[in-house]
Amino acid sequence: MSKPGILGTLQLAATLVFALPIALLGIQFLLDGKTLLGGGFVAVAVLMVVLEEYLTTPTDVPGAVAEKTIGKVAKTPDDEE
């Protein structure tokens, strides 16, 4: 997982809000015997989640810089020892 923390969790939840209905539609098509269409929808849903987790976009860069900066500035008591 490339984005741990609250923001990463919220981004994953937002992606799942869109990906799960597509996956369910694909499963319904698979159960109806329309394998090509069903498999396509399931593949699109899986790709949505995988790309969100592992693809770095230009909007991810400022967040990554901010997390590194905060990590250097705000040390926990365990880090200071």
**Rg estimate, integer Å:** 18 Å
Proportion of β residues?
under 5%
- The total count of helices amounts to 4
**Main sheet characteristics:** none
Order of helices and strands: HHHH
Low-confidence stretches at least 5 residues in length (pLDDT < 50)? none
- Which whole number gives the mean pLDDT? 83
| Domain tally | 1
InterPro entries: DUF7533
Keywords: Membrane, Transmembrane, Transmembrane helix
Pfam families: DUF7533
Could you walk me through the main structural features you see in this protein, from its secondary elements to its overall organization?
The protein is an all-alpha fold and 81 residues long. It has one domain (6-73). It is 79% helix and 0% strand. It has 4 helices and no strands. The protein is elongated. The model has no long low-confidence stretch (mean pLDDT 83). The chain crosses the membrane at residues 12-31, 37-55. Keywords: Membrane, Transmembrane, Transmembrane helix. Pfam families: DUF7533. InterPro entries: DUF7533.
What is this structure's SSE topology?
Blueprint: H1 6-31, H2 35-54, H3 60-73, H4 77-80
Helix pairs in contact: 1-2
Keywords: Membrane, Transmembrane, Transmembrane helix
Transmembrane segments: 12-31, 37-55
InterPro entries: DUF7533
Short account of what is shown:
Keywords: Membrane, Transmembrane, Transmembrane helix. The protein has 81 residues and is mainly α. The chain contains four helices and no strands.
Core attributes:
single chain, 81 residues, mainly alpha, 4 helices, 79% helix, 0% strand
